[in-house]
Design a protein that fits this description.
The complex is a heterodimer of chains A (about 270) and B (about 280). Chain A contains 16 helices and two strands. With about 270 residues, chain A is mainly α. Chain A folds into two domains: about 150 residues, no CATH class; about 80 residues. Chain A has a two-stranded antiparallel ribbon with strand order 1-2. Chain B has six helices and 13 strands. In chain B, a hairpin with a 4-residue loop joins strand 3 and strand 4. In chain B, helix 3 packs across helix 5 and helix 3 runs antiparallel to helix 6. Classes of the chains: A mainly alpha (about 270), B alpha+beta (about 280).
């Protein structure tokens, strides 16, 4: 069984420092790390097993297959512990070596440059873990963490909350970019509520988008003077139900419209 | 979770001069490489809040926040003194711990003794989750001296069997992890004792150390090409290399990998000075 490697820390730091110089290399279809490193020892072995070889579906530019790729990454690296999964050296190896082809298809740097995006920012964000927020932004780490944060191993479908999380950009952003989303109980309660009220919260196009944002805003406000993490599930559901009533009455004039964004690409 | 003095809609103990009462907590953090043990002792001088807790309508909460691993949890405490264990695999680096008293029920006419004169004669409507008191935030570093990617605790599992009666513990080395199998009674005792710091070193020396010795012995006995066969073999090999261990003695190697557990065990029990010890 294959195990993950990881970059040595000093090598990973060198790569981060040289992002600007290496932009042409990030536009290459071939993995260039070994050649760039020369004779230096850049890898360290880890006990993290890749239980099934990763065969991620490549993005075609329109469809990114985030849900199925997330499930695959998590299943394959399901023995990873959170402390291991917070290690930037592991994800840097996965993005630069093991999943190079996927990364090229998902964030083609040459096309991003042509579109006027800042390649250094994209490379730093998608190929490395440089800040705490990076775990849900790094190209491969985010796939593992999406599932870790939402899976229920004992459910008949352990990934059903992950599917809701990734169903709409607003849901992903509302949860992962707000403080209350860090707490598992609050996160799952919120997703549970969206599933229970999917007609209003998920399937109503633009109106749903506004409702999800309002619910998240209300929770955020409630967290200003209460400890959401300590609110029992039934009380949380009652609170959200009241907020939904408010949001529905406020969005009465809005007609459901088709979603503008079909795939999640947070940030 | 850092709380700055803020304008809560109700008087909150610990928030500026809202209430002339105190809510403090002392926190002691220990680890045995497998778990962190957080021991808390709280003092609340507000009789109003203590009686709400006695009535079961408010709770003491330990709030743990580890941004590195996105671990955040509110744990209801059994009383003013309690101990909570968290796996070393769940938290890393900076961890913040704050203690709260939080309402569990609707309290439609909430008022608190010794509230600031601004709140005189006013009753508040409190809902579940409302903060009634909070302590200062404690911080500790959950970085362990070993590398999480090579964590030895990740390769040792203690499991219970259905076998009753007096049976010796077994070590199984034919899977990815080192499995220590205990008979039913021993496993029950292990589960009871593992959370108690006073017994922790005993478990490491009595259980983990001999199991690791057997694993090291088996590792050396394997032909070189089979020494990366299982995950525990690979981790062992890495640790031996990293620590620059030159001896081949399973007893010495195991102690070095476990960072001298005998010394810790001796320190954890008080031995009267001046007495000779006989084995």
């Amino acid at each position: 069984m294959q195990c993950c490697s990881a970059f040595r820390k000093e090598f990973e730091q060198l790569l981060v420092a040289d992002i600007g110089k290496n932009i042409p290399l990030y536009c290459s279809d071939d993995c260039w790390i070994q050649q760039w490193a020369g004779q230096n020892v850049v890898l360290m072995s880890t006990p993290v097993e890749i239980l099934n070889p990763l065969e991620l579906r490549f993005s075609d530019g329109k469809t990114h297959f985030d849900v199925e790729n997330a499930m695959q990454v998590f299943s394959s690296l399901r023995k990873l512990t959170p402390t291991q999964a917070a290690d930037e050296r592991l994800w840097a190896w996965l993005t630069h070596v093991y999943c190079w082809g996927y990364m090229r298809s998902r964030w083609p740097i040459d096309l991003k440059v042509k579109a006027g995006n800042d390649p250094v920012k994209i490379i730093r964000e998608r190929y490395f873990v440089t800040t705490r927020r990076s775990l849900t932004r790094n190209g491969i780490a985010r796939l593992w963490w999406y599932v870790w944060l939402t899976h229920r191993p004992d459910d008949s479908d352990p990934f059903r909350y992950t599917k809701v999380l990734l169903s709409k950009l607003d849901v992903t952003q509302s949860l992962l970019e707000r403080s209350f989303g860090k707490c598992r109980e609050v996160r799952m309660s919120f997703l549970d509520f969206l599933m229970t009220h999917q007609d209003e919260c998920l399937n109503g196009g633009n109106r749903s988008r506004i409702i999800v944002r309002q619910l998240a805003k209300a929770l955020n406000f409630r967290g200003g003077f209460g400890l959401l993490d300590a609110v029992r599930a039934d009380a949380m559901q009652s609170f959200l139900a009241k907020q939904l009533d408010v949001a529905l009455s406020e969005s009465d004039g809005l007609e459901p419209q088709a979603d503008e964004v079909g795939e999640v690409d947070v940030g | 979770m850092r709380i700055n003095t803020r304008a809560f809609p109700i008087p909150v103990v610990g928030n500026g001069d809202d209430v002339n009462a105190g809510f403090q907590a002392t926190l002691d953090v220990e680890d045995d490489k497998i778990d962190f043990f957080l021991t808390v002792e709280m003092v609340c001088s507000s009789a109003s809040l203590r009686s709400l807790i006695d009535e079961g309508v408010a709770s003491y909460i330990m709030h743990i926040d580890c941004p590195t691993t996105m671990f955040r949890r509110a744990i209801r405490l059994a009383g003013m003194r309690d101990r909570v264990s968290i796996s070393t695999q769940d938290i890393d680096k900076a961890v913040e711990v704050t203690f709260f008293i939080v309402a569990d029920s609707e309290l439609p006419h909430y008022a608190i003794d010794a509230a600031n004169a601004d709140f005189d004669g006013v009753a508040f409507s409190v809902t579940p989750g409302d903060i009634l008191a909070y302590s200062e935030t404690h911080r500790f570093d959950a970085s362990l001296p070993f590398d999480a990617l090579k964590n030895i605790s990740a390769i040792i599992n203690v499991v219970g069997s259905n076998e009753e009666g007096r049976r010796p513990a077994q070590v199984m080395l034919t899977g990815e992890k080192v499995i220590i199998r205990l008979c039913k009674d021993d496993f029950r005792n292990y589960m009871l004792m593992r959370g108690d710091p006073a017994h922790r070193q005993l478990i490491v020396t009595a259980l983990v150390l001999p199991a690791l010795m057997e694993a090291v012995h088996t590792f050396w006995a394997k032909p070189e090409e089979e020494r990366d066969m299982y995950r525990w073999c690979r981790v062992l090999s890495q640790r031996i290399d990293e620590l620059g261990i030159e001896t081949r003695s399973p007893f010495e190697i195991s102690q070095l990998i476990l960072e001298l557990p005998l010394q810790r065990a001796f320190r954890s029990v008080s031995v009267p000075t001046g007495e000779s010890a006989e084995v």
